[in-house]
């Protein structure tokens, strides 16, 4: 079992920046592949970015590539999402997800591949 807790979401103006955090506990974080997803009101959950358990591989969705950066600190059991140049369409509940990694370099891109989810943190971008 893995418990995930997100933090860092808030109201920010368009063009601003935010850093979200996802703190993990319960199993060895260093063998847990992670990702960020988001869900806007009235829309389906959307993949944002994934990172392998060893941090060597990342995969970004086209919608946010170039404006977001994922990172993880396995010593602190924490994953981060740095978001820059925020747009109103980035408004959503951002959730982190985790799963046991088959290989250290593996990334997983769909929600149904993840077993563990946080409760989400609200990001609101005003125009």
Structure description:
- By secondary structure, the protein is mostly beta strands.
- The protein is 0% helix and 49% strand.
- It has no helices and eleven strands.
- Strands 2, 4, 5, 6, 9, 10 and 11 form a seven-stranded mixed β-sheet that branches.
- The protein is globular.
Structure annotation, total helices: 0
Following the backbone from N to C, one meets helices and strands in this order, namely: EEEEEEEEEEE
Q: Classify the helix fraction into a percent range.
A: under 10%
Oligomer: single chain
SSE map:
Layout: E1 3-7, E2 11-13, E3 18-25, E4 32-39, E5 46-51, E6 58-60, E7 68-73, E8 78-83, E9 92-100, E10 116-117, E11 121-126
Parallel strand pairs: 2-11
Antiparallel strand pairs: 1-3, 3-8, 4-5, 4-9, 5-6, 7-8, 9-10, 9-11
Which tags fit this structure?
127 residues, mainly beta, 49% strand
Short description:
With 127 residues, the chain is mostly beta strands.
């Amino acid at each position: 079992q893995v418990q995930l807790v997100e933090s860092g979401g808030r109201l920010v103006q368009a063009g601003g920046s935010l850093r979200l955090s996802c703190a993990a506990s319960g199993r060895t974080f260093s063998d847990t592949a992670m990702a960020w997803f988001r869900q806007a009101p009235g829309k389906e959950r959307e993949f944002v970015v994934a990172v392998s358990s060893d941090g060597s591989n990342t995969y970004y969705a086209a919608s946010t590539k170039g404006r977001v950066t994922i990172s993880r600190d396995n010593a602190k059991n924490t994953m981060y999402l740095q978001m820059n140049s925020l747009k109103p369409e980035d408004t959503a509940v951002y959730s982190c997800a985790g799963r046991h990694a088959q290989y250290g370099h593996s990334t997983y891109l769909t929600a149904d591949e993840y077993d563990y989810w946080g409760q989400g943190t609200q990001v609101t971008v005003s125009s």
